[in-house]
Task: structure prediction
Amino acid sequence: MIDRIGLYRLHNDPSPSSPPDEPSGQTTATGSGERPRVIAVWIILAAIIVIYILSSLLSGSLFQPSLRALLVLGAKENSLIDQGQYWRLLTATFLHGNLVHIFFNSFALYALGPESERIYGTGRFLALYFIAGIGGSVASYLMSPVPSVGASGAIFGLIGGLGIFFYLNRQILGAWGRAQVQSMAAIAGINLVIGFSAPGVIDNWGHLGGLMAGLAVGFALAPRLTVNQTWFPPTLVRHFESWGWGMAVAVFAVLSALAVVLPGAS
Result:
């Protein structure tokens, strides 16, 4: 998937290889093999690893940080969120319960993150990732009384964001694009089934919340692709909906209101 989307170079400034006077909000994809830069994914991944090392040092165990250390660092704990510690809905997404947990989440972020950032751009990628992560934490807070940690909600949000991008652009991307929609749906479905098969161990509400938030924010912020055949060679153009950021902010506002107004599961 990464190689396919990376065939195009997206840019805003007119150049000799691109037509001038592009409409506002649009960017042109040329035939260059240069890929958009990926920055945010590596920063997030580094932060997750550094925070895991910190939690291990506080616990005296590299394999499994203690619950006490995780709570100190910001795990999702409903009773503390009820007391107003809403920041835990975000900080929990940087924490992991054991070495296996962080390995799989880090690998998933490594696999899905770069493509997501190239498609959405860094700013929109950050909005997708963090709103989905908060969506997962809010769903877990409302539906599960068990303390929880992990980037899984945000990663499910990336699955939703990629899935909705390929769905919206399935006509332009053809059979390959439709196959990616099916692939994202299969990945989400398999992981949800695994989660429901291990209640109390895997926070499936967090996964569902992240997926739903990712679909909503992805629908708002995903680029729409068109082919302009008036230029030669035909040029792939992407544009972003003018209402996209407003909808993303609205999703964040709804999640915040749910967390503030409704009590956590007990």
Summary: The chain has eleven helices and four strands. Residues 39-230+239-261 form a domain with the Rhomboid-like fold fold (CATH 1.20.1540.10). Residues 1-24, 28-33 have pLDDT under 50 and may be disordered.
